[in-house]
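Regression check, 2-amino-3-ketobutyric acid case 315:
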Amino acid sequence: MKKVLVTGALGQIGSELTLKMREIYGTDNVVATDIRKTESAVVQSGPFEILDVTDEKEMVNIAKKHEVDTIIHLAALLSATAEKKPLLAWNLNMGGLVNALEAARELNCRLFTPSSIGAFGPTTPKDGTPQDTIQRPNTMYGVNKVSGELLCDYYHHKFGVDTRGLRFPGLISYVTPPGGGTTDYAVEIYYEAIKNRKYTSYIAKGTYMDMMYMPDALAAIMALMEADASKLKHRNSFNVSAMSFAPEQIASEIKKHIPDFIMNYEVDPARQSIADSWPNSIDSTCAMEEWGFKAEYDLEKMTKDMLVKLGLKSF
Ligand code: AKB
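Current build output:
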């Protein structure tokens, strides 16, 4: 990767990935884009363009203007929002992706886009979910993710576009909060633990989902993008996970550091039913074997780091 274009650069992944890549590849070599402009470090620290990803012409123009060789396409709606606004999700998630793929085809760029554990559904094996398995999701987000995986495979086989992707679990970070996801509780809980010493979970006890700390997610994206293409048997998209836990387990990990922390439950049926349709834990073996995926953070290590970064003093 010599010159990279990032879409959705002000979102949860983009706001950290853009800065990390600017450190590695050079500030001017990472062009950030988003539909809005804010005062964030991403906008202040390097090239930034306003881009609505549903505008194909504009995407190609910006990619051409900056002579990029890689597109990191992150702009998308997450699962809970997509379920509330399914048509918008279809138009944005699929429209944005096909435009990014067309830009990559026309300009001969490598393309990364995230898939998700949401690409699985209620008939998928729930534990140790394999790389290649049943994918019949019952959410609009899941439909978008499976369609996106297939579309990326199609562009790879039909047009030779170097497409790569990861099926991300819930991503946890202290920098930019996610918005509209089902796994967001696992981020909110840390903020609330620091602020109010209590949290009300909208996900029920005993609901396991895969999760990953953001530094591992950023490292995984860069390792996959740098990987030797000839080693990749799978294109879209690799299972990657660092941990799997239920709400009561993250709560008891927090309690080790904040003993008066209280967890309550008020289950949101909409998000619970999305969580129930997803795997308990996915198997990342193919990612490990094909390009050396490795996660550094488990629940214990991540919790310590999150609480310190969010300002917990007494450690
Ligand atoms: C969501 O909850 O929608 C995302 C995801 C797992 O894709 N965090």
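Comparison notes: The two ends are 40 Å apart (CA to CA). Residues 4-170+211-239 form a domain with the Rossmann fold fold (CATH 3.40.50.720). No diff flagged against the previous build.
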